[in-house]
Write a structure and sequence with these properties.
The complex is a heterodimer. Chain A is mostly helical. Chain A has a single domain, classed as ABC transporter involved in vitamin B12 uptake, BtuC (Orthogonal Bundle), CATH 1.10.3470.10. Chain A is globular and about 75 Å long. By secondary structure, chain B is α/β, with parallel strands linked by helices. Chain B has a single domain, classed as Rossmann fold, CATH 3.40.50.300. Chain B contains nine helices and ten strands. In chain B, helix 2 runs parallel beside helix 5 and helix 4 packs across helix 5. Classes of the chains: A mainly alpha, B alpha/beta. Chains A and B meet through helix 7, helix 8 and helix 11 of A and helix 2 and helix 3 of B. The structure holds adenosine-5'-triphosphate and magnesium ion (MG). The site of adenosine-5'-triphosphate has 11 residues of chain B, from strand 2 and helix 1. Chain B: Keywords: ATP-binding, Nucleotide-binding, Transport. Chain B: One of its GO terms (molecular function) is ATP hydrolysis activity. Chain B: Belongs to the ABC transporter superfamily. Chain B: InterPro entries: AAA+_ATPase (IPR003593), ABC_transporter-like_ATP-bd (IPR003439), ABC_transporter-like_CS (IPR017871), Metal_Ion_Import_ABC (IPR050153), P-loop_NTPase (IPR027417).
């Protein structure tokens, strides 16, 4: 594979993208999970699908590449994030209602665009489940820019985002612009989803944001550690998943997510076993 | 001469058309330790929300540190330990150090990061509440009373002049309530002004310098000894009135 990696540009692009999203997806995912917004990632990814379908439709009807599906997906994802925010404010007591509304809207639109473009094709299949050969050089540049934006914003607003996640009331009292920061956060989520979709696919992108965090939360002390372990889990799964997906000719979305689940189960079981051993040791000492 | 930190004049507040506060006049002077008591729904939390700028009064004026509240920007002069501090998500992965660090958010401002001085202040605040050994523990793994102490440390770390606490001793056992009040007393001696909402009248009257009773309006505002000499009848009158009997005031 290494020789292929050097030989084929598309493979290099895929791997670089994989390494980048292996960092930014769990990084943002840590905030998403502790704010209990895991499902928003799902809702936004389905809106992104609608955008991608729209881009494919345009491509087909006009023949020109005015906006590639990547950008139309990105655009829809950002619009979706704005609507989520609006809806959350309308239903302050039932904020999770925003999720099924956006999610079903995304799927509905996708179905319409897809059938207008005369149905399913390989391209769409790749967008749903990810692909090892779908990242163009142009996409890679956009993804690098997205990664720079995400990392810079999180670096600069870390303490505000953290406070907002832990204690929204205190954040407001402190005088930080909670609404604006929250808005920035949702847009970042939309960006990360758009960047990840080429590799893991629409249906599994939220898994890449949440599963590494689910595993790392079991063992981490504190939030910074949670982020670091989540990135390690995410990166491991992405790299191994891409390699195995390539050899087994399975879309990498499937292999990456199954690896993440495996890591999660291993972590939970190992922690159990270690705790049991510890308490048995303790019992032996005292008993 | 101590100067007033908080001045409320003829303040009233409505949630929609339900009146929560009516014609409240309330002064907190520098160095006070005020215990605010009153029945459930009496408007205590509401009064605090006004002071913190989370709600705006319907009528009347509020001054903080000599400035009208809408002009007051130095948020780091006051800290708040909320009634919800003990209902936060216990699974949240945050260490004690990370939680206390949050208290510096307002002081630091946007884009600024912790310096070594700040780190020192964090350790000092944690030491003050006697939790030094726990810096790298997850907050969710501490007991309720220990968590309360950490939230006090978070309130202390920005070096505020006024700390507002909304029922911080709920769910804390009697012995720890006593210790908790001693801690507050200690802070008060270091010239930190305290406004404490509590239902723990007995313990509070031993430590507070003044007591205020709120049931929509301020019924009593004076020193704890006088408060204790209020007859049982007067107190139960004040507490026992169903709220709807008092609503026709506006
Ligand atoms: N968000 C809200 N919307 C509408 N009404 C509210 C709201 N919050 C409080 N109220 C009403 O305002 C009144 C005062 O409530 P508040 O929470 O200030 O009481 P409290 O003195 O803090 O009570 P407790 O001892 O139970 O904490 C109550 O009648 C309550 O029903
Ligand atoms: Mg209250």
């Amino acid at each position: 594979m290494l020789t292929n990696l050097l030989e084929y540009e598309f493979l290099r692009n895929t791997f670089l993208t994989g390494i980048i999203i292996g960092i930014i997806a769990p990084l943002l995912g840590a905030f998403v999970v502790v704010r209990r917004l895991s499902l928003i990632a799902d809702a936004l990814s389905h809106v992104t699908l609608a955008g991608i379908a729209f881009g494919l439709l345009l491509e087909k009807k006009t023949g020109a590449m005015l906006i590639t599906p990547f950008y139309s997906g990105l655009g829809f994802s950002i619009i979706g994030s704005v609507i989520v925010e609006r809806l959350r404010r309308v239903y302050t007591a039932f904020q999770e209602l925003a999720i099924p509304i956006i999610l079903s809207g995304g799927v509905g639109l996708s179905v319409i665009f897809i059938s207008m473009a005369n149905g399913f094709n390989t391209d769409l299949y790749n967008y749903l489940f990810g692909s090892v050969s779908a990242v163009s050089r142009h996409d890679l540049y956009s993804i690098i820019i997205i990664a720079i934006i995400v990392c810079t914003v999180i670096f600069l607003l870390y303490k505000e985002l953290f406070l907002l996640s832990f204690d929204e009331e205190q954040a407001v009292v402190t005088g930080i612009h909670a609404k604006r920061i929250h808005f920035v956060f949702i847009v970042l989520t939309a960006l990360v989803i758009a960047a990840s979709i080429r590799i893991v696919g629409v249906l599994l992108v939220s898994a890449l944001m949440t599963l590494p965090v689910a595993a790392s939360i079991r063992i981490a002390k504190g939030f910074k550690q949670t982020i670091i372990y989540a990135i390690i889990y995410g990166e491991t799964a992405v790299i191994l998943g891409l390699v195995s997906g390539y050899y087994l000719e399975i879309p990498p979305g499937g292999t990456i997510v199954m690896l993440l689940i495996l890591l999660l189960i291993t972590t939970i079981v190992t922690k159990r076993v270690i705790e049991n051993l510890k308490s048995r040791k303790h019992r032996l000492k005292t008993g | 001469m101590s100067k007033p930190i908080v001045e409320m004049k003829n303040v009233s507040f409505h949630y929609g058309d339900r009146q929560a506060l009516s014609d409240v006049n309330f002064i907190i002077n520098e160095g006070d330790f005020i215990g605010l008591v009153g029945p459930n729904g009496g408007g205590k939390t509401t009064l605090i929300k006004l002071l913190l700028g989370m709600e705006k009064q319907t009528n009347g004026t509020i001054q903080l540190f000599g400035q009208p509240i809408h002009k007051f920007k130095e948020k780091n002069k006051l800290s708040y330990v909320s009634q919800k501090a003990n209902t936060f998500n216990r699974g949240f992965p945050a260490t004690v150090e990370e939680v206390v660090t949050m208290g510096l958010t307002a002081k630091l401002g946007y884009f600024r990061r912790l310096s070594r001085q700040h780190k020192k202040r964090i350790y000092e605040a944690v030491e003050k509440v006697g939790m030094t050994g726990y810096l790298s523990e997850n907050i969710g793994e501490l007991s309720g009373g220990q968590q309360q102490r950490i939230f006090i440390a978070r309130a202390l770390v920005s070096n505020p002049q006024l700390i507002i606490l909304d029922e911080p001793t709920v769910g804390v056992d009697a012995e720890n309530v006593e210790k908790f009040f001693e801690l507050l007393h200690e802070l008060n001696k270091q010239n930190i002004t305290l406004l404490l909402i509590t239902h723990d009248i007995g313990t509070m009257t031993h430590h507070a310098s003044r007591v205020a009773c709120l049931n929509k309006t301020l019924h009593f505002h004076g020193n704890p000894n006088e408060f204790q000499t209020l007859s049982k009848d007067q107190l139960s009158d004040f507490y026992g009135h169903p709220l709807n009997l008092v609503t026709h005031e506006h």
